[in-house]
Recover the amino acids of this structure.
């Protein structure tokens, strides 16, 4: 008997299309991609209650309460729901990570309330939530109900808001209730694992990290002041927590805050978030401004006028006038009109405060071109290094500032970032990122420092080579550094090498010839042709980098007059070892045998190759990078002859047979 009815094939297609469209809809509405707000202008957050975005771009959750108000609530949520779990995984939610910078400002310090909470909720609208102790999350009748499906990390400034609160300055984990499951007094752990208390109501910028591992069911919460920009190794709270019964498939993420009778403003300055990944880093240099603490108090009644009071007032006014005049002289600066044409200019007052008046205690070091001070910018809390250059000459200052401003636009992971500059009279102040580990020079030659391993040395050399390649070929102009040496290589917290001190740098357009200029640099690192041509070329930088290669590999400065005659010049000594077939004898003896033979031989030979007397015989930085990455072979290079150039250098020069490009064994170009 024949079957009747339509074929099931079209229905199958319809089901597949329906599932595909459903998947696309889920992807579109989940907002699964990480997001980051370095300020909140144009952020399109869903704001309710008293939450607003201020003109400079800060997210203000609550404004000041007043005596006629019982308090305010403020909510700010990411505008799209995010997918926090897969329905097929019954007992597991996705991992998530958040990072944000906040500030709590009270007109009467330490007397505000009630705090704010990082919040994950089923809706971006919490209409039944109330102010005061309930943090804008719930109300008296809904507090603690499982149907809330609310997870929050509270930053509470109200003492006794729940039975589990240790004090009015703590961080807590909340599940469906403002009675915290777990709390800790606000603090952070230093690198020495010392617990340092943090005042949440200090009015200063603080940073928070919240990381939830959906596999292990563990929540880690860390806070630190902005003066400690790196995340502390030890979290404040590490609490086992299974969020799978709490979080629904799609949830909203954001912030909730409230006030009571006391006056507080709660600010979020920057925020990033990611699901199944680490929250993107925040750019601390772009933080928006916000109003700081403005103490208020009742004005004392004037005492009856007497001769004693009059004398006191006159004396006070005189002292105040003198102090104001002295303060004005201290901070005063004459800004010429042309300076306004160049970006990244800091007010002198801000740098003076950052370095505590260029106090000797903040001094990091002195060099031939100025002194360097550690500072903390008052506006952002960012740690910086401020170089004060005083040469007693204003001629050419405008051209110098133009070049310095250009440097502020350069971006490379192996260059110390120039944050800005300031001119005051004959002083030029340059503001750089602060490098916590100081200079490479101190690690090579200061016996009190930990000996650098070969792995660290090789990584540093490759990084500096990459930075130089960017200066020579990767930026809009050719930049010749002119002072490459170990003391101008700074090390960050992860021992990455970053080239610094661009005070002698020269610029010229790609394809053009550099102009003749005065010969500057450091003896032992200067290319011999500079005394003849006076032109700052990329080849001269390659020569200096060759000296750095030998300096790092040998643990010796380019010239050491304490050595025997044949070892005074490190380049001569390495060449002699090479010609005798014992080039590895030149490796820093403090390393023993703890180095990679192939890498050490490569660095030493490449140092000789870059140190040749003839500029055209030296490799370019592109080729140097290829050698260090092992993308090009040095097997074809041999020592052919030795050339004496007594008019340029007091030691022997090396010329190596430099094969044509078609003889190089390159795996990639």
């Amino acid at each position: 008997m024949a079957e009747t009815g339509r074929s099931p094939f079209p229905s199958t297609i319809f089901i597949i299309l329906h599932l595909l469209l459903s998947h696309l809809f889920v992807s579109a509405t989940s907002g699964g991609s990480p997001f980051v707000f370095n300020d909140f202008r144009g952020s399109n957050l869903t704001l309710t209650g008293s939450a607003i975005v201020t003109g400079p771009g800060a997210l203000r959750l609550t404004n000041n309460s007043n005596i006629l108000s019982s308090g305010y609530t403020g909510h700010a949520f990411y505008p799209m729901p995010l997918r926090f779990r897969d329905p097929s995984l019954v007992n597991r939610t996705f991992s998530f990570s958040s990072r944000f910078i906040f500030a709590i400002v009270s007109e009467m310090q330490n007397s505000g309330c009630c705090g704010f909470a990082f919040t994950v909720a089923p809706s971006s609208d919490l209409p039944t939530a109330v102010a005061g102790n309930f943090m804008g999350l719930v109300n008296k009748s809904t507090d603690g109900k499982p149907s809330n499906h609310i997870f929050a990390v509270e930053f509470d400034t109200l003492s006794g808001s729940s039975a589990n609160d240790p004090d009015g300055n703590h961080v807590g984990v909340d599940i469906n209730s403002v009675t915290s499951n777990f709390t800790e007094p606000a603090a952070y752990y230093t690198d020495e694992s010392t617990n340092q208390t943090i005042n949440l109501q200090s009015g200063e910028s603080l940073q928070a990290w919240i990381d939830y591992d959906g596999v292990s069911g563990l929540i880690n919460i860390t806070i630190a002041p902005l003066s400690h920009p790196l995340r502390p190794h030890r979290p404040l709270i590490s609490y086992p927590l299974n969020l799978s019964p709490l979080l629904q498939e799609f949830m909203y993420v954001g912030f909730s805050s409230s006030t009571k009778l006391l006056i507080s403003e709660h600010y979020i300055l920057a925020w990033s978030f990611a699901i199944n990944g680490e929250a993107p880093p925040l750019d601390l240099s772009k933080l928006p401004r916000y109003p700081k603490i403005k103490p208020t108090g009742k004005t004392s009644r004037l005492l009856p006028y007497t001769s004693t009071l009059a004398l006191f007032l006159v004396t006070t006014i005189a002292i105040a006038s003198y102090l104001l005049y002295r303060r004005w002289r201290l901070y005063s600066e004459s800004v010429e009109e042309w300076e306004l044409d160049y970006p990244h200019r800091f007010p002198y007052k801000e740098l003076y405060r950052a370095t505590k008046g260029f106090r000797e205690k903040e001094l990091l070091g002195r060099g031939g071109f100025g002194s360097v001070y550690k500072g903390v910018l008052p506006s952002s809390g960012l740690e910086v290094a401020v170089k004060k250059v005083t040469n007693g000459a204003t001629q050419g200052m405008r051209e110098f500032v133009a070049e310095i401003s250009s440097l502020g636009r350069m971006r490379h992971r192996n260059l110390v970032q120039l944050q800005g500059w300031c001119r005051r009279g004959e002083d030029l102040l340059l503001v750089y990122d602060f490098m916590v580990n100081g200079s490479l020079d101190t690690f090579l030659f200061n016996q009190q420092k930990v000996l650098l391993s070969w792995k660290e040395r090789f990584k540093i050399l490759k990084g500096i080579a990459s930075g130089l390649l960017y200066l020579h070929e990767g930026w809009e102009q050719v930049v010749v550094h002119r002072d490459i040496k170990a003391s101008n290589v700074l090390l960050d917290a992860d021992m990455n090498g970053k080239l610094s001190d661009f005070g002698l740098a020269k610029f010229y357009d790609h394809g053009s010839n550099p102009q003749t200029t005065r010969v500057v640099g450091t003896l032992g690192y200067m290319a011999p042709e500079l005394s003849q041509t006076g032109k700052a070329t990329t080849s001269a930088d390659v020569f200096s980098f060759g000296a750095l290669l030998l300096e790092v590999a040998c643990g010796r400065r380019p010239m050491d007059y304490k050595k025997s005659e044949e070892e005074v010049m490190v380049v001569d000594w390495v060449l002699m070892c090479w010609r005798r077939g014992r080039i590895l004898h030149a490796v820093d003896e403090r390393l023993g045998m703890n180095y990679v033979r192939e890498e050490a031989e490569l660095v030493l030979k490449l140092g000789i190759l870059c140190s040749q007397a003839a500029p055209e015989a030296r490799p370019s930085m592109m080729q140097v990078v290829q050698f260090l990455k092992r993308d090009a072979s040095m097997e074809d290079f041999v020592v052919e002859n030795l050339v004496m150039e007594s008019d340029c250098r007091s030691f022997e020069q090396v010329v190596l047979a430099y094969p044509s490009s078609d003889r190089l064994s390159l795996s990639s170009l």
